[in-house]
Amino acid sequence: MALQLRQSSSHLRRALAGVRPSGARFMSVKANIEGYGAHAFTGSVADEYLTAAGLPSGTLNDHKWTTDPAAADKVADAVLSWAVDNGATSFCHWFQPVASSGVRHGLSGQVQNAFFKFDKDGKPVWDLKGKDLLSGETDGSSYPNGGLRATHTAGGYLKVDPTSPIWLREDTIFIPACFVSYYGHALDEKTPLLRSTDALNREGTRLLKLMGYEVEGLQSNIGLEQEIFLIPRDVYLQRMDLQMTGRTVIGKDAPRGQEMCDHYMAPPSIASPALACMAEIQRQCFQLGIPLRTRHREVAPNQYEFAPLYGTVTTQIDQNVIVMQIIEEVATQFGLAALLQEKPFNNVNGSGKHNNWSIGTTCGTNLLNVKQVAEASGSTDIFPTVMAAIVSGVDEHGDLMRAAIASPGNDFRLGACEAPPAIVSTYLGDDMTNYLDSYRQGKTEPYNPATKELSLGVECIAPLNVPAEDRNRTSPFPYGGHRFEFRAVGSSQNVSLVNTVLNTLSASAFKKFADKIEAGAAPSEVAAEALNTHWKVIFNGDNYDEANQQMLTDRGVWRIDSGVDAICTLSSPKNIELFGDMKVMTEPECKARQTCLVDHYVGTVEMEALCLIDMLNQHVIPAVKACGGDHLAELEKAVGTIKHGLAAVHGEEDEQTRGNLARTLRLETMVEIRDIVDAAEGETPASLWTLPTYKDLLFLDHNHSEYE
Fold it and tell me: Measured between alpha carbons, how far is 649 from 551 in angstroms, rounded to an integer?
């Protein structure tokens, strides 16, 4: 196998040759900063072209241009001039179909059209009108829709999203857009997200006004931490399971994993192409105005993370979707394959996407920053009231939070000491908990987060001032000072549903609070009542501890172990009512989204099962036969077992039952078969084993000497 890998590693040898030792592939920080945002039509870049087209600077900051045909034509003229100046020849409306995570490249849909027309002499001339920019129509027949459309009602309609900037890559400009059916049903991730943003703004500003704090608007802000694996592309191309599903369905553990904690935040090696690849990813993101500031190694071998500065929820989600596509495409240029799936490898950490979420005014005040909001509002009641509303929303709708993270890959992560368990509690820390406890008892002392001085015991080093609260990595939704971090989100996900849920449950809580205040209750009484009712969801201990998990379950905190069962809460009467009241999703849209996500789960399992069958027949069984191994009969039987399990899934009509049959096939039957395969791998001579092993896949730095 080693000989085979050495002979087939030309891409990686070339990539390595390109990054040692001159650093020729690295752009200077100065060059990156000077070109920052040149390919995003926003801010000063857009204003230069907008003023040339006869519009004032800042036109894009007011969404009214989308309802004024004359202004839209001028914006289109400005976009066209900018595009042509940057070498673009085509445009598209860029949208995000449902149920794309882990299967659709780029998680987006688009039809690219050249922006020209023919003049009266038959010559092509550049042309882009306001109507072209504002809307479009396409065939919606082949996107997941959950029954919202049929082949005889297949229209899909696109409308520009003015909250997220138009951007340019290669020869195409991309216009962020919503995607709906002929009847206005959302067929995408973005439309419900924007509706939830409206609900948060509507109900939040109403509540604040009742408390004496008038603001122009509210928005949710997020920052997303994107974890990935980078592995040698040569060996990736020899693993059907990685190519088809993004994870290994078989594979014996290497003698070394992450046991020594030697990978986490270790220096990226310039002897492998990983660092140069990450630098190029950042360079391309900077051009698009994506503030991908942080890069580092993660816990598992070959695992890395990127993190941007925070921003508004719609822009950050669009940018994260773009980042994932850039990661996959740039990796190939460096002889690598990028794996975005949550659990590509067994018995080492999988990948997540921590969703750092907060609520802010459009003027920049963070409602989760106690000092900021007190100074801006002159009130010490607003912060605890907002916190009480969020706590109540988490307790009431923890099932929806669990549904929002129920991606297929997350089944392998949740509760596995690498991601929080499927029990939706929130960590506030002792200081915050004590403060809210006092507040619900009628005490009015201000919240002053404590710090402590930490001496290093070294004379020449000054003491550190650190927060009194430590980090709780076991909580699914910890308060981290100024933000909540939804830690259980999967790495391959489009996080629109995650933030739609957070926005909606908060908006609903704000509405309930505002209704009671309008009816005569004092805000402090409303907040105290909510805290008393929902206090059970606050837990500051170790969520990995099984006794604590049982305790939280006994308390009645939402616990849904099955991802399929969690998805199926989308159609519960409580949640249909929530989304309907907040004008985020209709009942048909809730049920359709559930169907799409269950089908996505079942389809993922089917692909994994079919890969396992082929790998058994084409690789494992022949290798075991050749060496006279002990597991031959078990392996041959396993093929029939998987086929039987798939037949049961295909034969089941009930949606939830079908999903859980697929889950059982994946998490029980296929895991048991994997144990047999991995044992056989350990007993088969390397010369007969035809699949790349975990040692070949996972240790890019340590394997680089093979490619000298």
Answer: 35
User: Among 394, 399, 411, 412, which residue's Cα sits nearest to residue 357?
Assistant: 394
477, 485 Cβ separation under 8 angstroms? yes
Give the dihedral of Cα atoms 311, 351, 239, 706; nearest 10 deg: 90
SS3 per-residue string spanning 209-224: HHCCCCCCCEEEEEEE
Tokens, residue 616: 């058994």
Residue 40 binned pLDDT confidence (cut-offs 50, 70, 90):
very high
Q: Where are the beta strands (DSSP E) in 482-552?
A: 484-486
Closest by CA to 92, choosing from 49, 137, 150, 123, is: 137
d(C-alpha 79, C-alpha 35), whole Å:
18
Rounded Cα gap, residues 398 and 424, in angstroms: 6
Confidence of residue 705 (pLDDT cuts 50, 70, 90): very low
The CA distance from 452 to 369, in Å, is 19
What residues does 303 pair with on adjacent strands? 229
Helix-helix angle 496-518:190-210, to 10 degrees: 30
Cα pseudo-dihedral 260, 265, 269, 274, rounded to 10:
110
Across residues 545-556, what is the average pLDDT? 95
Q: What pLDDT score was predicted for residue 102?
A: 85
Q: Give the integer Cα–Cα distance in Å for 132 and 129.
A: 5
| ∠ Cα 317 321 325 (to 5°) | 165
Contact 402, 257 (CB under 8 A): no
Other beta carbons less than 10 A from residue 311's beta carbon: 20
Q: Structure tokens of 226?
A: 């994107």
- Residue 521 phi/psi, 5-degree rounding, is -75, 150
Distance CA(11)–CA(29), nearest Å, equals 27
Phi-psi region of 561 (alpha: psi -120 to 50; beta: other; left: phi over 0): alpha
Residue with tokens 């289109």: 76
Residue that wins the pLDDT comparison between 375 and 707: 375
Nearest to 102 by CA among 338, 358, 396: 338
Tokens of 642: 């998987």
Rounded to whole angstroms, the Cα distance separating 110 from 128 reads: 17
Between residues 369 and 8, which one has the greater pLDDT? 369
What's the confidence (pLDDT) of residue 132?
A: 95
Burial 15-54 (b: 16+ CB within 10 A, else e): bbeebbeeeebbeeeeebeeebbebbbbeebbbebbeebe
Q: Give CA angle at 28 (27, 29), nearest 5°.
A: 115
Residue 589: what residue type? Answer: E
Where do the H-state alpha helices sit in 353-457? 370-377, 382-396, 398-404, 430-440
DSSP string, 354-384: EEEEEEEETTS-BTT-HHHHHHHHS-SSHHH
- Alpha-carbon Rg for the chain, nearest whole angstrom, is 27
Spatial contact of 472 and 540, defined as CB atoms under 8 Å apart? yes
3-state class (DSSP) for residue 678:
helix
136: enclosing H helix or E strand = strand 135-139
Q: Are 370 and 539 in contact (CB under 8 A)?
A: no
What does DSSP assign to residue 617? I
Q: Pick from 649, 597, 585: which is nearest to 403 by CA?
A: 597
- Whole-model pTM over 0.70: yes
pLDDT higher than 50, residue 3: no
Rounded CA gap, 325 and 306, in Å? 13
Residue reference for tokens 């009641």:
381
Which secondary structure element, helix H or strand E, spans residue 181, and what is its range? strand 172-181
d(CA 236, CA 332): 11
CA atoms within 13 A on the CB side of 92: 16
The terminus-to-terminus CA distance of the chain in angstroms comes to 17
